[in-house]
Write a structure and sequence with these properties.
Blueprint (H helix, E strand, L loop, with lengths): L6 E6 L2 E6 L10 H17 L2 E6 L23 H17 L5 E5 L2 E3 L1 H7 L3 E5 L3 E3 L13 H9 L1 H10 L3 E2 H6 L5 E3 L4 H13 L4 H12 L4 H16 L2 H11 L10
Parallel strand pairs: 2-3, 3-4, 4-6, 5-7, 6-9
Antiparallel strand pairs: 1-2, 7-8
Length: about 260
């Protein structure tokens, strides 16, 4: 198995877990961590049928590790370069995964950590979780796709509030705003995320197609969305899982999907 220094990966049956693992600095995202996440996603997507991303210790991710190379390339500071070379490829790989994935958020999800947390297909937060667009506090602008994610999730006005004021958004308010799916007691976070991930992992292979269709539909005109559905339905309908699902429906029994 590939060895990592800033993250851990493990499996629970068909579910893969990617854990940011630098709790001493609240899992701040360094260039190394971004590189390792990108490499781990390829490993996990090839073996798991669903994925959980979470953080070790008391935080999900406190944002960019400004002491870990972010923005320090070249003779002049260029915080955009680390986005181009590390963060944006990681976020794009997350968007384009072939398997559904969940974020399990405890404590701080700030800066780029907020972006990763909110990019999940489903988001489970503990009662101690909070989401923070901290960029205005240090004279920078939102990144990691957060302008796209937030404006489309909670609308322009609330996205502006988070980004311009730079205030913590607690888990309860995030649930009220429709930014997360579930809020659970802190000691139930991993169990809740795993239960959901196991349901996804035991579902049909078409769940991967569904998640990609929804991501595409965010920016597609109506006609393109319909065309996408038609194309994906063709492929899904020819799968072994579709044959099993239809047979199970007709025979009035639970389907046993194999992810193929």
């Amino acid at each position: 198995m590939t060895e990592f220094n800033t993250i851990e990966i493990e499996y629970d049956g068909p579910v893969g877990v990617l854990r940011l693992n630098k709790p001493e600095n609240l899992n701040a995202m360094s260039l190394t961590m971004a590189e390792e996440c990108l490499a781990a996603l390829d490993v996990l997507a090839s073996r798991a049928r669903a994925l959980i991303i979470t953080g070790a210790g008391r935080a999900f991710c406190s944002g960019a590790n400004l002491a870990g190379g972010m923005g320090q390339e070249g003779s002049e500071s260029d915080f955009g370069l680390s986005l181009e070379t590390h963060i944006n490829p990681m976020m794009t790989r997350l968007r384009d995964l072939d398997i559904p994935w969940i974020t399990a958020v405890r404590g701080a999800a700030a800066g780029v950590g907020c972006s990763v947390a909110l990019a999940g297909d489903m988001i489970v937060a503990s009662e101690t979780a909070y989401f923070l667009q901290a960029f205005s506090r240090i004279g920078l602008v939102p990144d990691g796709g957060s302008t796209h994610l937030l404006a489309r999730s909670i609308g322009r006005v609330r996205a502006m509030e988070m980004m311009l004021l730079g205030e913590r958004l607690p888990a309860a308010t995030a649930l009220e705003w429709g930014l997360v799916n579930r809020v659970v007691p802190d000691d139930m976070l991993e169990a809740e995320a795993m239960a959901l991930a196991q349901r996804l992992a035991n579902g049909p292979a078409s769940l991967g197609r569904t998640r990609r269709m929804v991501w595409g539909a965010i920016d597609m005109p109506w006609a393109e969305a319909l065309a996408s559905e038609r194309s994906e339905q063709l492929h899904a309908g020819r799968s072994a899982d579709a044959a099993e699902g239809i047979a199970a429906f007709l025979e009035k029994r639970p389907a046993k999907f194999q992810g193929a």
